[in-house]
Amino acid sequence: MNLIDCSYFYVGPLQVMNARQVDDLDNNAAEVQECITAYIERYQSEFLLKMTGKDLAAEVTAYLAARGEDEDYTDEAMETLCQQLRPSFAHYVYFKLVGDVNQNMTITGLMKLKSANENQPPRQRMVKVWNDMVELNKQFVAWAEMSDYDVYYDVEMITPINQFNL
User: Fold this and answer.
1) pTM of the model
2) Is 99 helix (H, G, I), strand (E, B) or coil?
3) Which of 4, 2, 1 is nearest to 136 (CA)?
4) What is the per-residue pLDDT across 93-115, written as a single tens digit (0 to 9) for each?
5) Total domain count, the chain
6) How far, in whole angstroms, is CA 32 from its chain's centroid?
7) Three-class DSSP category at 1
8) Gyration radius (Cα) of the chain, Å
9) H-assigned helices in the chain
10) 4 or 118, which is more confident
């Protein structure tokens, strides 16, 4: 089981075009969900390590695995911890996804994707999403410290950025 699912990207500030229920009649909803799910799975461990430290990340991962095996299983403390991490993780996934999907890899290098609609570089959007995530991460750290969790976070996760990467 993952910390979040594709529904975080259906509407709102993290909306991904054509991200919707697979049973929708849209012809590429399944492909979009598959892509988003791949990013969720790829970056979940990295995010947990950066935001909670090795020990707590292992506990969260074990809890999610147990929930995946038995949906009736619940641990209130771990579920509350996961609830605190989910919005921030959604921002992290969105940041990684937007940074990658604007390009296509070829044998000669990276190429910008072509589109009938004129695309804008994602830099400004990525900066906003990252900085929103930073605020959520700071709130999480404050909550975790008040809740007596020993969190060891990577300082980059609470450091805002700008479009010039300064």
Assistant:
1) 0.86
2) helix
3) 4
4) 999 998 877 655 555 655 554 44
5) 1
6) 15
7) coil
8) 17
9) 29-52, 54-69, 76-101, 123-146
10) 4
What is the number of alpha carbons within 13 Å of residue 153 lying toward its C-beta? 19
Query: Kindly report the CA angle at 44 between 40 and 46, in degrees rounded to 5?
Result: 130
Answer whether residue 166 shows pLDDT above 90: no
CA dist 80 and 43 (Å) reads: 21
Count the alpha carbons within 13 Å of 53 in the hemisphere toward its beta carbon.
Answer: 9
List the structure tokens of 133: 């995530």
The domain in which residue 16 lies consists of 6-158
Query: Does residue 166 sit within a domain?
Result: no
How far is 91 from 132, CA to CA, in rounded Å? Answer: 8
User: What does the alpha-carbon distance between residue 29 and residue 44 come to, in Å, rounded to a whole number?
Assistant: 22
How far apart, in whole angstroms, are the C-alpha atoms of residue 119 and residue 8?
23
Is residue 49 in some structural domain?
yes
